[in-house]
């Protein structure tokens, strides 16, 4: 069974090809809200073809999207070209699979729900997922396995773009750790504020969130902390204290778990109708 899982974000779309439970390949492309279904088809055809795969190999498609126009475009594309009905990961499709204990479950980002589901299945609760992308999302799973919310902060790249865009004399810089916190030139000063400042943001929020999660958990509970997202390849991530695991493909695996649950539910419903 070959499943194409797509995590559609505001900046990038991450695509994974699963052969049963094994992630065979993963690709990353720029996300553009105004893309047509033909443009998305051309992009997908090219990415699949890089590793010798084709549309007609696919048995199923599952989509987690935070860009509504692209959700519609991808749904149309998959229906017309792959000739299957895609599974759309959202709060309604996860009813009975993941308990969502926030004020407005329908507003929860699909990627955040996929992360929470994957964390619960693979690590158990309590757990915190730090998704390092356009935004920096902290998603919490309590000891009982329920998604209970978290925090959203600007991503490192977004913060840097805002800084450079509003200050004409500041150059674009490489996001790497400076030689010291005290920057003796503009580049090192910006790297200190951006990279070391970001490490401080992540560390501070993680400490606060972990403390509140521990308070809600049974005695002696251990909180697992998992990092995922586009910035997991950065070497400075190892400087953030308290991260237990770095799992770049956690969101894709969460989308697959959501698809599996939907498939099992649909199968049970069909069996019930026949009975």
Provide a compact summary of the structure.
The chain is α/β, with parallel strands linked by helices and 275 residues long. It is 40% helix and 22% strand. α1 (37-50) packs across α2 and α3 (110-123) packs across α6 (250-274).
Account of the 3D structure:
This protein has helices spanning 37-50, 68-82, 110-123, 156-166, 186-216, 250-274; strands spanning 2-8, 12-19, 22-30, 60-65, 87-88, 127-132, 135-141, 147-154, 224-228, 245-246. It is α/β, with parallel strands linked by helices. The protein folds into two domains: 2-88, 2-Layer Sandwich (Nucleotidyltransferase, domain 5), CATH 3.30.420; 110-255, ATPase, nucleotide binding domain (Nucleotidyltransferase, domain 5). The strands form two sheets. It has a five-stranded mixed β-sheet with strand order 3-2-1-4-5, sandwiched between helices. Strand 6 and strand 7 form a beta hairpin.
Give a quick set of tags describing it:
alpha/beta, 275 residues, globular, 10 strands, Nucleotidyltransferase, domain 5
Task: Describe the secondary-structure layout.
Layout: E1 2-8, E2 12-19, E3 22-30, H1 37-50, E4 60-65, H2 68-82, E5 87-88, H3 110-123, E6 127-132, E7 135-141, E8 147-154, H4 156-166, H5 186-216, E9 224-228, E10 245-246, H6 250-274
Parallel strand pairs: 1-4, 4-5, 6-9, 9-10
Antiparallel strand pairs: 1-2, 2-3, 6-7, 7-8
Helix pairs in contact: 1-2, 3-6
